[in-house]
Amino acid sequence: MANSIQSSNDRILVIGLGLTGYSVVKHLVKSGMQVTVADSRELPPYLQQVKDEFPNLEIITGRIPYAWFGRFDQIVTSPGVEIERQNFSSGGALIGDIELFVKQAEAPIIAITGSNGKSTVTMLVAEMMLAAGLKVKTGGNIGTPVLDLLDQALPDYYVPDYYVLELSSFQLETTYSLNACSATVLNISADHMDRYSSLDDYTMAKKRIFENANKVVVNRDDALTNPRPYQNTAQNTSIISFGLDAPQAANQFGVAESGNSRSLVHGETLLARVEQITLQGEQNIANILAAMALVETAGVRLSPVVINAALNYGGLPHRCEIVAEVNGVKWINDSKGTNAGATIAAITGFSQNLILIAGGKGKGADFSQLAEVVKERVQHTILFGEDAGIIFESLDQSVPSTRVDLLEQAVVYARKLAQPGSVVLFSPACASFDMFDNYEHRGNVYKQLVWDLVH
Questions:
Q1: Which candidate, 319, 443, 431, places its Cα nearest to that of 365?
Q2: Which pTM value belongs to this model?
Q3: pLDDT tens for residues 319-332?
Q4: Which CATH number is 100-311 given?
Q5: What does the radius of gyration of the chain's CA atoms come to, in whole angstroms?
Q6: CB-based contacts of 81: which residues, under 8 Å, 6+ apart?
Q7: Which residues are designated catalytic?
Q8: pLDDT tens, 437-447?
Q9: Peptide bond into 229 cis (omega under 30)
Q10: Domain map of the chain by residue range?
């Protein structure tokens, strides 16, 4: 069955009316397509905007029988909607907004996914490309829905030299024609286990990013990121690796050590000293190496100005963000740490005395992997939210742990525990939807609580 819209006569169903669904509706209606919108929620977030802009559009809210989908030639689903594909055998092909986008993309695509670090690497690549004097558009799972990048009606519209896309596993599930000029899976750790049947199922969704990619960037420190032999990549596809060890080949990126000095290198070519990097933590050394590999494989020379753009990048909000440092206590906001792997990376980025605040909606995750790193580096854990009890049972009980009901209580208790030299790390290892709108809302609440408490 075809995976793309063939003509304006196709009957198209858009499932989900959040930000992505809204962008899909705008794109399709403006293209002259026959569109119907469905959302299982009675009051989806962008319902009123669609009614105001497109008053004649058919909109269905609430539960919809699967048999009803047979009316349509094409079904476009939002990434947050869980779909059982076997129930669509009588309906049209199931695609997402990324598939719609790649059919009309006006420039090569650099595609980035992974369990952790993908937003940071996406922004690093964009900053490096801009430093090289190139025009870049960034979107996908970060910031702007991809179809908005094609909107010629916008006042700031321009044709870029490259698109840099952050892609989630959910987006990749319904993407068939990506054909990226350079693609990477940065790392794999258990996430969204409430949606996937196994880690292997989740990994396979991530690796869809490699299909028909011209160049592939993999993590030497994570064998699960290698596309072969499980993914459809051509035998002549170039595979470039990055890692925190020394490169073993000229096209590899890594870290060379000499005495007490550590350097970022491409093969034997020195790129920069580790101490020049603004971002903190070993995970960010890996992120910068990945970004360098993606930029180089996309055909952009790693000139000094391009390298300096990576070295000077200050990081994303809500990703190991310093909120305050008062009376010798450092308060860190890592609200973007929405799974155990992200929290492990955050913890290992600090060598000081750690007080960890974690908790939220666990998405069916196994938190036992947190136990070892918590035992090694954390002095006390403070747990809150829907799955605080599950995390508590998973952690090594040799580390003191306190359960509270609210984030505010966690911050107040952390202040009581903290001594000069302590680091209070808010890295939830969970989604935010039990108490907050999203991780940004959660992070902003944490920052306000800290500012109110310490100032």
A1: 431
A2: 0.89
A3: 999 999 999 999 99
A4: 3.40.1190.10
A5: 23
A6: 15, 16
A7: 118, 141, 192
A8: 999 999 999 99
A9: yes
A10: 11-95, 100-311, 321-454
